[in-house]
Write a structure and sequence with these properties.
- Residues 22-34 have a biased composition (Basic and acidic residues).
- The chain crosses the membrane at residues 250-271.
- Residues 1-43 are annotated as: Disordered.
- Keywords: Membrane, Transmembrane, Transmembrane helix.
- With 461 residues, the protein is mostly helical.
- The chain has two domains: 4-130, no CATH class; 142-361, no CATH class.
- It is 75% helix and 1% strand.
- The protein is built from 22 helices and two strands.
- The protein has helices at 9-22, 25-28, 33-36, 38-43, 45-48, 53-65, 69-76, 80-91, 99-105, 120-130, 142-169, 173-199, 207-233, 239-244, 246-290, 294-333, 337-371, 380-383, 386-399, 405-426, 430-437, 452-460, and strands spanning 107-108, 117-118.
- A two-stranded antiparallel sheet has the order 1-2.
- A hairpin with an 8-residue loop joins β1 (107-108) and β2.
- α6 (53-65) runs antiparallel to α7 (69-76), α7 runs parallel beside α19 (386-399) and α11 (142-169) packs antiparallel against α12 (173-199).
- The protein is elongated and about 85 Å long.
Length: 461
């Protein structure tokens, strides 16, 4: 903001005072406002003169008590007008908030058992918005999707395992009900999978991704739905009842073979495609480094890691399909061993989802560490220590205006997605188009697609 152009000489003077005061702030960060005396007045003079001194003192006190001094330091680096804008955003007001209103809006608790704390996530977002940085949350539901995938796989294994136990030992109605409940939940999960395949389809997807989305996820999801529904209908509380439910078992077996064939074919094709894309993106990253294009290099690196994860998922999908084919064939043959293979298929599905979720969490941490140059701010011996690395990361995140790894990662992906959109969709940069092609997207300049939101999802997986 150019204060001179607005005729605001007082604001200019306050900025100069703020810059001079900032030199004295570091030593005072470890003191409470009551202990700081005249020095604290010096620190807050700029905001105090505009009526925000009490709010700033409260933030200093809370930041010291709650270990957020580095994050408050990011606030200190804003201009006076940006600080005021941030305070208004935090309070949800258009005018100057009172201390009572501000503290009420900025106080929260994780649950009823904990004391109230400052909503530092909200503080971080408000500060970055005031500085005109991107805070678009383009990766919000990924963890939820993985959790649902894992739950579905787990319920498949539970249902199949209990079905086998029932037939083997003639267990009672409680175990029988548990097995049928597991199958019912899995049927719901399969229906959701099929719907998501339809809902997430886009004209911006490459031909391969479109076929994989509708074919593998949609068709196989419907086959799973048929199988789980039949499985839930099959009593299976004893060997005699299992034989009596032969019709339902036959339907489950046939559906398992059909769905398994689709999963196997899709998994093998996916493995090959993701392996090819990962290698292409690795080469693109090298070219970007040579040309000193940090945005392209970072995007190619993250995209390549995503393709590597998808390659692992495809391998698991193929293995799941093979197990389903064998299990379905054994079910049609009338042997109880078929349920074991169905259980194995479910276990593979759940294990793959959990692996991808955990691996993605680790990857987010690594992406953030590179972004804030964590290694460059630590000596080699300390970097190997997990606790020291975590402490240093938290400090650097605060200095960059973030309260968590998730916030930082979200901004990284948002910046990349919007940057790629400008280069490849609005512009006509061939290297950025190559990037999009290798995360499974095609450019349609007339429609202005793919949009940044879809780019972000395909980039981060």
């Amino acid at each position: 903001m150019d204060y001179a152009n607005h005729g605001n000489r007082r604001a200019q003077q306050l900025v100069k005072e703020q810059m001079a005061a900032s030199k004295e702030r570091a030593p005072e960060r470890n003191k409470d406002p009551e202990e700081s005396g005249a020095s604290e007045t010096q620190l807050t003079r700029s905001l105090r003169n505009l009526g925000y001194g009490e709010i700033y003192q409260w933030l200093v006190y809370k930041a010291n008590r709650q270990g957020k001094a580095p994050l408050l330091g990011f606030f200190d680096g804003l201009t006076v007008l940006q600080q005021i804008e941030a305070i208004k955003k935090m309070a949800g007001t258009t005018g100057k908030p009172s201390l009572d209103v501000f503290t009420d809006k900025m106080s929260t608790r994780n649950n009823m058992l904990f004391k109230k704390t400052v909503d530092w996530d909200k503080f971080s977002v408000a500060c970055r918005e005031a500085k005109k940085l991107r805070t678009d949350d383009v990766t919000a539901d990924t963890a939820g999707d993985y959790a649902g995938y894992a739950a579905t796989g787990g319920s498949v294994a539970l249902s199949a395992g209990d079905k086998l136990a029932n037939m083997a030992v003639g267990a009672g109605d409680v175990t029988k009900g548990l097995a049928q409940t597991g199958a019912g939940l899995s049927a719901l999960g399969a229906a959701v999978q099929a719907y998501q395949a339809y809902d997430q389809h886009s004209s911006s997807l490459s031909a391969f991704d479109a076929v994989h989305n509708i074919g593998t996820e949609g068709v196989a999801g419907m086959a799973d739905l048929t199988r789980y529904t039949a499985q839930a209908a099959s009593p299976g509380s004893a060997v005699g009842e299992a034989v009596a439910s032969g019709a339902a078992t036959a339907v489950a077996g046939a559906a398992a073979i059909i769905g398994g064939a689709v999963y196997l074919a899709g998994g093998v094709a996916g493995y090959r495609m993701h392996d090819k894309r990962e290698k292409n993106l690795s080469l693109l990253q090298t070219e970007a480094d040579v040309k000193d294009d940090p945005m392209l290099s970072r995007a190619a690196s993250i995209g390549g890691e995503t393709q590597a994860l998808n390659r692992t998922k495809s391998a698991a999908t193929a293995a799941k399909g093979a197990a389903m084919i064998v299990g379905g064939a054994l079910l049609l043959a009338g042997g109880p061993v078929g349920w074991i293979m169905i259980g194995v298929a479910g276990a593979i599905s759940g294990a793959a989802a959990i692996y991808k979720f955990l691996k993605n969490r680790q990857r987010r941490e690594e992406v953030v560490d590179r972004y804030i140059d964590l290694k460059g701010h630590m000596i080699a011996s300390d970097f190997k220590d997990k606790d020291k690395r975590s402490a240093s990361r938290e400090k650097l995140l605060g200095e960059h205006g973030f309260n968590s790894i998730s916030q930082c990662y979200t901004q990284i992906i948002a910046e990349l997605a919007f940057g790629i959109y400008e280069k490849a969709v609005k512009g006509d940069d061939p290297e950025y188009r190559t990037l999009l092609e290798n995360i499974g997207l095609v450019v349609n300049r007339k429609k202005g697609e793919p949009k940044p939101e879809l780019i972000a999802k395909k980039l981060s997986g």
